[in-house]
Amino acid sequence: MNSDILNTSIEFLKGVGPNRAKLLNGELKISTFKDLLFQFPFRYIDKTSYHKISEIQSINSEIQIIGKISDLKEVGIGKKKRLVAKFIDDTGSIDLVWFKTNRWLIDSIKLNTEYIAYGKLNSYNGKHSIAHPELELYNNENVKKRTKLTAVYPSTELLNRRGITNKVILNLIEELLITLNNKIDENLPTYLKQKFNLLARREALIIIHKPRNLDELKKAIYRLKFEEIFFLQIRLIKKNINRKEKIKGYKFNVIGKEFDKFFKDHLSFELTNAQKRVLKEIRRDLGSGAQMNRLLQGDVGSGKTIVAFMSALIAIGNGFQACIMTPTEILSHQHYNKFKDICKLLNINVKTLTGSSKARYKKEVKESLIKGEIDLLIGTHALIYDGVDFKNLGIAIIDEQHKFGVAQRSKLWHKNKLPPHVLIMTATPIPRTLAMSAYGDLDMSVINELPPGRKDIKTIHQSNRDRLKLIHFLKDEIKKGRQIYVVYPLIKESEKLDFKDLLDGYESFSRDFPMPKYQLSIVHGKMKNEDKDYEMQRFIENKTQILVSTTVIEVGVDIPNATVMVIESAERFGLSQLHQLRGRVGRGAHKSYCFLITGNKQTKESKIRMETMVSTNDGFIIAEKDLELRGPGNIMGTQQSGEMPLRITNLIGDSKLIQKIRLLAEKILEKDPKLTNPNNSLILSYLKQIIDKKNIWEYIS
Ligand code: ADP
Ligand code: MG
């Protein structure tokens, strides 16, 4: 069967053998025929045009020259020993260099014979050279074989040094295609191929490696992207469907008197339409009998907390416990302080639990939790560790986080009970296509509307030197009764230096804003929790006007009277972090401001980040830009999630295609959820092939 051949170890391909197999595996993660077949070129080069040595200019580009080797010698000693060839054409000369030399190589090179040399141009001490070039005799046969679209494969330094050049990979691919002959099975049904005008799978896989022209290459790329996205989406949607079928959840039949009472008597504002819609979606899930796994997205300040709280009320109203988990202790305390009075009125027992809770208190909480005396527990990750046991946890709400993984989720789940419903709330929006791909197995709710009356935050980017004007501005705001955050970066590796920056900054602000007229607070991660709380509380109560801090206040903190966010060394923050920080202001009715202070030297990327921040307040747009700048792997650790083995699809460039295919996959599974319709048999059999044997139950019933 086809899949058997494709699963053959790469070692057994002609021309590979154990040593090369080890290298290919270690460097490129190629361990089977299939891995090599799906090792797609990342670009194509024209190997039918040649450079003259005198015309060569730009370094780091690939060049191809026809010439002769006039001289060959070994230079240097020991580790620095290398082989240098003088390569000449009728316009000049260039060095070809091999850093690892051997007898065989030296013997095989012929002097004064015409070669084609190909490789990446380097420049050293003003002299051009090519390291580890591909050398091929210049003759009719070799020239004829060269194409305008020669595939270039990912490579590494080590592979090159060990002689596994691009040409070698090309040869291996050639060998592989011969070995496979016609044995590449189709995995898309004819009706899809026709409808979307797709090449056959076999054809596409050959063309991607050996295109004859641009037109067919485009078609091959399209076909392979289509298949990649299609099967990813089918898997994700199917996983979701199967979970709903299989994983039973607690059924909350009523909305409960707590929710009702809160809604009627204690809600101090009208919910936005988006909040209402999302609550309805959650309510429907909670009543469905299946376990809820929902991701709630909303921009900073869109009002996710109240949705979380009201969802917890539904669980409590049905006789269950609820927990809200936050990324920081500060945020746990903020939620607790916000809800404790209301909870009292509703006769709900609420407690907090964080890493730094006192041992005796922790013990008490744990005891009453297992007895079911606590209705709502708010805390950090401490909630899922060391023997924290609920009597009957009905819903777990994860605030301001999306990295909360499956493994962690399952910690909340006791073998002998049903799993709690899970609501994950993101800190900032996730780009649509990324959400679809990385979280495509979760249900999604979006709050796409801010509470009424919010004004855009005015964002100003300025250099370190214009401080005087800034100080004046801040004083004016304080005069109006407003408060100010000043944030310094604290990034692990350079912690000591950063810490000094923070203290220096605090001192300098203390000089510009002297006591007793002004009061300042400082909060950072190294402080004791009590001290942190004390300082935060003073700021919350408007006893201090300026809060100087590290990013400990990055997410979630909600103090509507604060109207200015000053971000120091802003160039060191990523876009979504900047947006998160800015989101600390603009939470009330007052006009708010964000100052991005950067040093004089900025990278191009940092400039783009600042420009983006200045030009928009929209978290969804910023998320897209962030994805574009950093790539999916760096955002939210999605690389580790293993759900996105995307080899050819680009989450940004292919977003339209992803959306189209998502809809298509949804439609197919809606009509044929188990894929048992004969028309879909190719899809089903391919799914069975690609899904890990131990996970197969997740997909196929
Ligand atoms: P985030 O989505 O960033 O977590 P929060 O839940 O902290 O936002 O809400 C931001 C602020 O908006 C809070 O002070 C909250 O009380 C307020 N808020 C939430 N919903 C509404 C609403 N519908 N009308 C007015 N204010 C609201
Ligand atoms: Mg929040």
Quick overview:
By secondary structure, this protein is of the alpha/beta class. Helices cover 42% and strands 17% of the residues.
CATH class assignment of the largest domain: Alpha Beta
Q: Report how far apart the termini are.
A: 24 Å
Helix content: 40-55%
Helical stretch tally = 27
Which ligands accompany this protein?
Answer: adenosine-5'-diphosphate, magnesium ion
**CATH third-tier fold name of the largest domain:** Rossmann fold
Low-confidence stretches: 636-643, 696-701
Assign the structural class, choosing from mainly alpha, mainly beta, alpha/beta, alpha+beta, or little secondary structure: alpha/beta
Rounded radius of gyration (Å): 31 Å
Strand arrangement across the biggest beta sheet? 11-12-10-13-14-9-15
Largest sheet: 7 strands, parallel
The CATH superfamily of the largest domain appears as: P-loop containing nucleotide triphosphate hydrolases
What do these coordinates show?
With 701 residues, the protein is α/β, with parallel strands linked by helices. It has four domains: 1-48 and 148-184, no CATH class; 50-142, Beta Barrel (OB fold (Dihydrolipoamide Acetyltransferase, E2P)); 257-447, P-loop containing nucleotide triphosphate hydrolases (Rossmann fold), CATH 3.40.50.300; 458-616, Rossmann fold. It has 27 helices and 21 strands. Strands 11-12-10-13-14-9-15 form a seven-stranded parallel beta sheet, with helices on both faces. A six-stranded parallel beta sheet has the order 16-21-20-17-19-18, sandwiched between helices. Helix 11 (257-266) crosses helix 13 (304-317) and helix 12 packs parallel to helix 13. The longest helix is centred in the first third of the chain and has 33 residues, at 214-246. The structure holds adenosine-5'-diphosphate and magnesium ion.
